[in-house]
Design a protein that fits this description.
alpha+beta, Rossmann fold, Methionyl-tRNA Fmet Formyltransferase, Chain A, domain 2, 2 domains, seven-stranded antiparallel β-sheet, four-stranded mixed β-sheet, 8 helices
Amino acid sequence: MGTPRFAVPSLEILIEKGYQVRAVVTAPDKPSGRGLKMRESAVKLAALANNIEVLQPSNLKEDRLAETLRHFAADLFVVVAFRMLPEKIWTIPPLGTVNLHASLLPLYRGAAPINHAIINGEKITGVTTFLIEKEIDTGKILLQEKTGIGNNETAGDLHDRLMVDGARLLLKTIEAITAGTVTPKAQGESACRGNLPAAPKITKIDCRINWSQPADRLYDFVRGLSPYPGAWTSLGDGNKVLTVKIFEVEKIADAHTFNPGRLIVSNNQLIIATGKGSVLVKRLQPEGRRPMTGPEFIRGFRPGPGASCI
């Protein structure tokens, strides 16, 4: 059970190693793009390429879906980047339902663990396999694997690494379940000091840049949302306001006297003042335009001397 590209290597590695994948459950096709053409999920395309039956329920709580899944008589259900399952689904297989999560649980439970880990400046993350229970991402842990987060790594970079690491860990998990060599362990919330960092779904308003924060925090914020969904700001220049997504910045520690958000054009470089220090904007995308570099933006939009991000 899965939908986005993150889940594809997990499906493919199980097929490659000879496991009998009876069916794939994924999201319904959705209209996408200017032409609103129906778009199939990455997992559906991978399943069809391997001649695997595909189910695309719009409602996971329907009794008919549970009946269909029982008919497959699967030993195990595997969930990677999918929706929350009702209990009558995840309790069907005799060996349980295994979920792959892109964090070191119990840290960063929720829909966006990769983004939140980078935004918070974490240096270590990883992947976890666990058995699904009633509360989301709280089930007993099977296996975990740690990895470092690079100082310049974006959410997209880390996503692609964990996508592969997670598939490998999932394979190890299923091999261990088959061999009876893994013992599920309760998540150790008490071993974590302070409040557990969470990873709720990120909305558009969550992506708006707060320029009063110091440059190092903004640097983590931008790379934690790059390339998707993208940190954004409103650029005011006289009577016009332009919405801009910012994908890549460089920290500048030098002190300044400008208000946070003020645009500083220097040597054909686009610099924006923050609450402490400033950032050099290296890659951005004005609304309705293609992505571009900072110098390209300056040449095309020519921000005035009073331009600021608001």
